Amino acid sequence: MQCTNCGNEIPDKAKVCGHCGHRLKADPGIPAQSTVVKQGIPNWAWGLGGALVTLIAGIILVWAGSSSENRSAIIQNQPDFTAMSSSTQIPTIASRASIQSCENRFLYRPFIGKFSLLNVFDHEYPTQERNKSIVTWRGERSANIGYDGHPGIDWEMPEGTPLLSAAEGWIRFAGEEVEPECLGSPPCPAGNVPCKTVVKRVIVDTRSHGKDGAWEGYLIAYYHLSQIDVAEDQKVQVGQQIGLSGQTGCASSPHLHFQVLWSDANGNWSAVDPFGWSGSVDIPLDPWASNPSGAVSCYLWLDEP
């Protein structure tokens, strides 16, 4: 006979169609109906899933405990920055302006070749003030490195070495003057007081490189020249010769004293270190940046000498 549900041939005595599961002859009290075969999740699958859930939960618990311990250790080992900064004074106007220019690197080497560093910038008192020690940009304090109170960078070089403009700008000053050290206040470190000659120096004004391009930015000073090759108000380009190195003024040997000054729109100015500040564990914060007369020193070199 044929199944009344699917039409396939089935045995005459069959009670359920083997093709579609249709009940052909219902049991007493049970009406004939289509049988829907439901396929559930096997027991073995439930067991495997439970084991995986248990394993993942255990891993998460172990990780969370370990992370909690690590976070606690990190928090406990952090330096007390609050204690460090509590003694830091509010930066001056010049210092705040300098912070805005810290990503503005624009200086090129002021000479061709390599020369030995003679003196570095004193981050404690770069004002010629003597306190029998200096602090370098690395946060090192020493009484045996360079010149106490030094406001710039000295490179030792033979007299007559060509000196180049480290940035585009204009000549603010080009000439001779008597250094205060040559008059004995403070004493010239070389001991030659009074000095044999007046100092020849050049100041390049690069204030177009300042914040907002206004009358604030950096000035670059070259000291102890033997010859000046530029005139005041003259425009200069990067790499243009501005003079020759020498030993004029307060100098014990031929060298270039290279000094960078930050000047703001109100006429406030301060010496800064063109090599910036990295600090150390012992001296993490720049003393000069927190001094009321100081400023933040930024790394300014595009081509480091």
- Order of helices and strands, N to C? HHHEEEEEEEEEEEEE
**Span of the ends, CA to CA:** 105 Å
Q: What profile does the largest beta sheet have? A: 8 strands, antiparallel
- Quick one: CATH superfamily of the domain at 93-272? Glucose Permease (Domain IIA)
Q: With helices defined by DSSP (H or I, 4 residues minimum), what is the helix count?
A: 3
- Taking pLDDT < 50 over at least 5 consecutive residues as the criterion, the unreliable ranges are 26-38, 66-101
Work out the helicity level. Answer: 10-25%
| Protein structure class | alpha+beta
Q: What Rg, in angstroms, do the CA atoms define? A: 40 Å
Q: How would the global form be characterised?
A: elongated
Number of strands: 13
Quick check: average pLDDT? 76
Strand content: 15-25%
Question: Given this structure, which CATH class of the domain at 93-272 is correct?
Answer: Mainly Beta
Q: What do we call the CATH topology of the domain at 93-272?
A: Glucose Permease (Domain IIA)
Under the CATH scheme, the architecture of the domain at 93-272 is: Distorted Sandwich
How does this structure look, described?
This protein has 305 residues and is of the alpha+beta class. It has a domain at 93-272: Glucose Permease (Domain IIA) (Distorted Sandwich). It has three helices and 13 strands. The strands form three sheets. Strands 1, 4, 6, 7, 8, 10, 12 and 13 form an eight-stranded antiparallel β-sheet that branches. A hairpin with a 5-residue loop joins β12 and β13. The longest helix is centred in the first third of the chain and has 35 residues, at 43-77.
